[in-house]
Design a protein that fits this description.
The protein is an alpha/beta fold and 352 residues long. The chain has helices at residues 12-17, 51-64, 95-110, 120-125, 128-132, 136-147, 152-165, 181-192, 205-209, 212-216, 256-264, 280-287, 325-333, 341-344; strands at 78-81, 196-204, 223-234, 240-250, 271-274, 294-299, 337-340. Helix 3 (95-110) crosses helix 6 (136-147). Keywords: Hydrolase, Signal.
Amino acid sequence: MKETILRSGIDRRTLLTTLALLPALSAPPLSVSASALTVSSGPLPSWNEGSAKQAILDFVRDTTDRASPKFVPPEERIATFDQDGTLWVEQPIYSQMVYCFDRVPVLAAQEPALKDVEPFKTVLSGNRESIARLSMRDLEKIVLATLAGITTDEFEAEGKKWLASAKDPRWKRPYTELVYQPMLEVMTYLRANGFKTYIVTGFGQDFVRLYSQQIYGIPPEQVVGSALAVKYDYDKDGKPVLMSEPRLMLYDSAAGKPEGIHLMIGRRPNASFGNSTGDQQMLEYTGAGEGARLSMLVLHDDGIREYAYGPAQGLPYTKIGSFTPALYAEARKKNWTIISMKNDWKNVFSFQ
């Protein structure tokens, strides 16, 4: 049975998992090492020398050298990136879900009666334990009330306003600053060598498009994500608008990622980057093609500079961005490259 995806591409499973408090995660106070401030010359300066960095360099060399049997014509060079946990922080709760919950007080101000109506009353209380006990029906009510039935222009305005002020509670910085510097360098390096880079995310396509150009250098038309259908309509002044509908158009997670790639991009990627079981099928699809292929997974094993979670390699279990032992075993079997955040990255964020 397909999960119901609401306005911003949020499915039932995601609604539940994002409520987890994740007490097992290792997240001591941020500590910046001297090595994090060292800038190296050449491509990928935030990467330590090792097999992961070398895999990227070798792949680019092989696919761009016309004398190489693995050469890929420029028009066929495609690289896809998951977002949450691959390009920016996804713990302890997805940023888009924070937006969803932050919208509840706004609605309550517009409709004061909601303050005494469940599940809005529970959300307004701020009690995480109570919020975690909300039923599936309660969560659906929250999502419908906060995200459905608005125009794409209204969503864009509200989303941008929230992104401009919302900050992560740990780093006290905007969510758009919690981007992995090493991955920004990979995207820049690939584009400099003729690759077109795409974001392929399980979260809301419209939400990611709000900032993809600004922080990733990826235009909105190169963002593929979960999405509802929209309907052409007119506002009260007769202006044409696109209104969201409670009807699934694309579920872009797990098997939905290669389906979305085919639908929205039209070419099989040469390279794909992910970090969890939700990215497994995208990497499988990429690896099944002919010629040079690069499939990479980020392993969150650095609880000092970011978070440590798996449960692969004995890391703490998490429902958000789960990297299971089975996925780790498949990666080893298929020669996918596993990126150790702890060992492969000199620094995680640009501000370190």
